[in-house]
Design goal:
The chain is α/β, with parallel strands linked by helices. The protein has helices at 12-24, 41-47, 53-74, 84-88, 93-104, 110-117, 143-152, 182-195, and strands spanning 6-10, 31-35, 130-135, 157-162, 171-172, 180-181. Helix 7 links the parallel strand 3 (130-135) and strand 4 (157-162).
């Protein structure tokens, strides 16, 4: 009680945090920073079918399968919701959403999961100062989604859209040995300014 609360999240967690802010209004926090949020999970999943997407899916899938096997060993009832053979056959992020996240969390499928978890539909209801950092060349987030997010967001959301940096990796500095995380600097400055 009496403490001001600031939140910061990156990538899928940033989307989740924005969704939470939009659903909770000003009761959620006093200030927030979102870095690299995929604002529309369905669009992001489709976008990731090209470029680095397939390699990212392959790497992520290995980790997911190991964690699911451990989860099933600890909670055998999970095996009734998740088909490991279908999970292992996943070729895209949308496949993972369909075979892992939707059944684990009670959604009817990937489309239901995307509709109920994407932040885009609630950006206009955010009622706390929020800095949303994105990059035009983010391999997870189509630039058109960033433009749409800007058009539907509430006035409480300030967008910093950078030309480069990829997915949540914006660095600054004149030389490699003097570089620093621009995201972290911007996030800290934003939260500091709004939590005083």
């Amino acid at each position: 009680p009496g403490q001001r609360v600031g939140v910061r999240a990156v990538s899928w967690g940033a989307n989740t945090r924005l969704r939470w802010l939009g659903e909770r209004g000003d009761a959620a926090a006093d200030a927030a920073v979102s870095i690299g949020a995929p604002y529309d999970l369905a669009h992001s999943g489709e976008f990731m079918k090209k470029g680095m997407g397939p390699k990212s899916v392959s790497l992520l899938l290995k980790t997911i399968v190991i964690k699911l096997e451990a989860l099933i060993a600890r909670f055998p009832e999970v095996a009734g919701r998740v088909d490991l053979a279908r999970v292992r056959a996943s070729k895209s992020f949308n496949d993972i959403d369909e075979t892992v996240w939707a059944p684990l969390h009670g959604f009817t499928g990937a489309a239901d999961f995307h509709a109920k978890c994407s932040s885009m539909p609630v950006l206009g209801r955010i009622a706390v100062p929020t800095l949303a950092i994105s990059a035009e060349n983010d391999p997870l987030n189509p630039a058109s989604d960033i433009t749409q997010a800007q058009s539907v967001a509430s006035p409480f959301v300030r967008f910093e859209v950078l030309r480069g940096g990829g997915h949540a990796a914006q660095f600054a500095g004149k030389t490699p040995w003097t570089s620093y995380s621009w995201n972290e600097e911007a996030a800290g400055a934003w939260l500091d300014a709004h939590l005083r």
